[in-house]
Design brief:
The protein is mainly alpha-helical. The chain has three domains: about 200 residues, Clc chloride channel; about 190 residues, Clc chloride channel (Orthogonal Bundle), CATH 1.10.3080; about 140 residues, Roll (CBS-domain), CATH 3.10.580. The strands form three sheets. It has a three-stranded mixed sheet. Strand 4 and strand 5 form a beta hairpin. Helix 3 crosses helix 10, helix 11 packs across helix 18 and helix 13 runs parallel beside helix 15. The longest helix has about 35 residues.
Length: about 600
């Protein structure tokens, strides 16, 4: 009799394909591995895109005659005056005839929060190109916002090719955006934190790792292989720490005031140009003409101003010139962007902060000669402080400056000034330089969610009514078994009459039950003072309560009888209800 050893071999559990697949799936998170692999690809591509962008910016700057280090005496006066206007005219035509919408950082925040991360690839690519024209022709703007948009475009393109679902598409777009800012500043940590702090508004573990991976690889390509132009920042240290920290306290508050001035001037200029009875094509040219007229007398305010920032950090300017450049930079930046140009706000805020810090440091040096660090140290801290105050992203500001300098000597005053500037600016003006534009379009976003949507959905529309409860008389052993079977880590606790008497979570189980105490009653370990929600409250209110108490679920009870359990709502329930409403709103607008 012939024995089929092959069939026996195949049927053995160790070599069964189905069992092997189940084992691998159980042991390894396939989805995470897939997203992380895609994040590497996005990082590499983003670094390449930013490298190409940087080279194109250099080429067009040379073409327009506005390359770094140019002298106003090299060209006739009309040339300096009309180059920004010519660039503005080209940008105006591009924007009017070819683009349906513009993004920038505020547009990306809106796209992630309420548009399902659906980025228009054509418009975003045209925006990146338009920014090259704006900056290279003399527009007083930064290259970081186009870099972020270019990175987001890369992430969205990869996601589109791979037909990624909405949730993954949001992650991939964030990967690209983080890679964009990381590559521009050679600051991978700052790229990660910027996306979390500004674009997403909150941190999720599932998105954090791929964003880190993309940021690292984008920096690797742009810095090590291509060689992006970076700010050259000297090293400074505190001379008299206790006295100087008091001075940095004053300076941080002053930086917050200047940050508010920067925001208000920009949006005042936007309002001014929106009311001018001129065709939209010509508005950027008109703004460029005024910028050119100012640049004729003070050419240092034209373009990004990397060289000017470096000179200020090296104490090359007088007090009077620092103040003039501070005021004029705010004006020409507002004109360049407010009239319809394309570019970023971060580098201009760094410029303004440098001039403010240099001027403040000059005064301190006159009052306390030789007893504090030089004006350049205050200029360095000023870069971060004004950036923090205008963007409301203090952690990003601290990390960008730290990664640019690779110097720990001024980290304490830098942190101090950035936080104080953020506090002062927030007190004077509720919106950041990014969210103010959204607010004017009727969109209020906090922590990655649109407030108007959150405040329009009641808890009863999102809560789960079929609640699994546990009796306070049951044993801990039963609770353990229930948690394993249901995979829930918390349950409302009810008494013998079915009334809510508390809540029990995995944390209670770990902290209040010792080995061998499986016979202990659930009522003995349950939390009796329960945070609850009411069915007529809004999701915004419930989410704030979850965040303030650092908990994951709220029992929903009757207002008249708080022991009457109506349902339960978790953070994921709130997010799902929000996303559903966003999809409905988005479909109604297209």
């Amino acid at each position: 009799m012939e024995v089929n050893t092959n069939s026996k071999f195949k049927s053995h559990s160790l070599f069964n394909y189905s069992n092997i697949r189940k084992y691998i799936t159980r042991r390894f998170d396939i989805e995470s591995a897939k997203i992380n692999s895609i994040a590497i690809l996005i990082g590499l591509l983003t670094g390449l895109v930013i490298g190409i962008y940087d080279r194109a910016l250099l080429y067009f700057s040379t073409l327009f005659g506005m390359q770094r280090g140019f002298s106003v005496h090299e060209f006739p006066p009309y040339y300096i005056m009309f180059m920004p206007a010519l660039g503005g005219l080209i940008v105006g035509m591009l924007s009017h005839f070819l683009m349906k919408r513009r993004y920038g950082v505020d547009g990306l925040i809106e796209t992630v929060a309420i548009r399902g991360a659906r980025l228009n690839l054509t418009d975003s690519l045209l925006e990146v190109f338009a920014s090259i024209i704006s900056i290279s022709s003399g527009g007083s703007l930064g290259k970081e916002a186009p870099g972020i948009v270019g990175g987001a475009w890369t992430g969205a393109l990869v996601g589109r090719v791979m037909k990624s679902p909405e949730k993954r598409l949001q992650t991939l777009l964030g990967c690209g955006a983080a890679g964009g800012i990381a590559a521009v500043f050679s600051a991978p940590l700052a790229g990660v934190v910027f996306v979390v702090e500004v674009i997403y508004g909150e941190l999720e573990t599932s998105t954090f790792i791929p964003i880190v991976i993309s940021s690292v690889f984008a920096t690797l390509v742009s810095n090590s292989i291509i060689g992006i132009e970076l700010l050259q920042i000297p090293s400074y240290a505190l001379v008299s720490p206790y006295r100087e920290l008091g001075l940095y306290l004053v300076f941080g508050l002053l930086a917050g005031i200047v940050s508010t001035l920067l925001i208000r001037t920009l949006y005042y200029t936007k309002d001014l140009f929106s009311g001018i009875p001129v065709h939209p094509i010509f508005k950027p040219a008109l703004g460029g003409l005024v910028v050119g007229m100012i640049g004729l007398f003070y050419p240092r305010v034209l373009g990004m101003g990397y060289g000017v920032i470096t000179d200020a950090l090296n104490n090359q300017f007088t007090f009077k010139l620092l103040l003039i450049l501070l005021i004029l930079k705010i004006i020409v930046f507002s004109l360049s962007l407010g009239s319809g140009g394309f570019g970023g706000t971060i580098i201009p805020s760094l410029f303004v902060g440098t001039m403010l810090g240099g001027a403040f440091g000059t005064i301190i040096d006159m009052l306390y000669p030789g007893m504090t660090a030089g004006p350049g140290a205050y200029a360095l801290v000023g870069m971060g402080a004004v950036f923090a105050g205008s963007t409301r992203a203090p952690l990003t500001a601290i990390l960008i400056l730290f990664e640019l300098t690779r110097d720990y000597n001024l980290i304490l005053p830098l942190m101090f000034a950035c936080v104080l500037s953020n506090v002062m600016s927030s007190a004077l003006y509720p919106e950041s330089i990014f969210t103010e534009g959204l607010r004017r379009r009727g969109i209020k976003i906090r922590k990655g969610r649109e407030i108007d949507i959150m405040t329009s959905i009641p808890v009863k529309a999102a809560m789960i009514t079929s609640v699994q409860t546990v009796s306070e008389d049951k044993s801990v052993e039963i609770l353990e078994a229930l948690m394993k079977a249901s995979r829930h880590i918390g349950f409302p606790v009810v008494d013998s009459k079915g009334k809510l008497s508390g809540i029990v979570t995995l944390s209670d189980l770990r902290n209040k039950v010792k080995p061998g105490e499986v016979g202990k009653k659930i009522g003995e370990i349950a939390t009796r003072e329960v945070e609850v929600a009411y069915p007529d409250e809004t999701l915004d209110t419930a989410l704030k309560r979850l965040a303030s108490k650092q908990i994951g679920r709220l029992p929903v009870v009757d207002r008249e009888d708080k022991t009457k359990l109506l349902g339960i709502i978790t953070r994921s329930d709130i997010v799902n209800a929000y996303n559903k409403k966003v999809v409905e709103k988005f479909r109604n607008t297209i």
